[in-house]
Prior knowledge:
Layout: E1 3-7, H1 11-24, E2 29-33, H2 36-45, E3 51-55, H3 65-73, E4 79-83, H4 88-96, E5 101-104, H5 109-120, H6 139-148, H7 153-163, H8 168-175, H9 179-193, H10 198-206
Helix pairs in contact: 1-5, 7-9, 7-10, 8-9
Amino acid sequence: MYHFHIADDHPLFRNALLEVINQNFENSTISESSDLENTLSALVDNPEIDLLLLDLNMPGSQDLYGLITVREKFPTIPIAVISANENASIINRAIGHGASGYIPKSSSVSTLYEAIKTVTDGERWLPPQIPFHASPITAEEKTLAAKIATLTPQQYRVLCYLREGWLNKQIGFELGVTEATIKAHITAIFRKLGVSNRTQAVIMLSHLAIDKDHI
């Protein structure tokens, strides 16, 4: 009997995972979320989750932020990343950042079952065609990931807007908060990342971007 948590904002794929679990893992508990903030809340409420099926890119989570944050805050919960991205470099980086498996959304029902079963058995699962690299990420990236994981979801959103070149007033309007609040978030971001300006913060964030692999 397992407790699975599905964190994905695509209802059709969540339903596919629900069907696989219900048909193959009898008497299991299944909880769901569709954004990073609610996923983190669910993990706080249920720290004994046996497997988190985590969408790599859902509201509140871009690039590797969601995986890194969950791994830092809940180091004992096994994570299987689920993603439409099948780039070998990204898959290996996800494993390097603590995922126990990486399941492409193009997988067949039988493959979904195989992947979930393998990870719940305590083993690593990768798509058969993807070779695993023993050192998929650098020590520098690990250090950076630990700093990024200290950001709250709201601070991470602000940092992403900074990367897009938005002004404080624009960010505040988009998030429904005052410009002073955005300034406070930026101050906290700089402190947590150990930087002194926007350019340095954006450069740090860019090192974790999945598009740096030219996907």
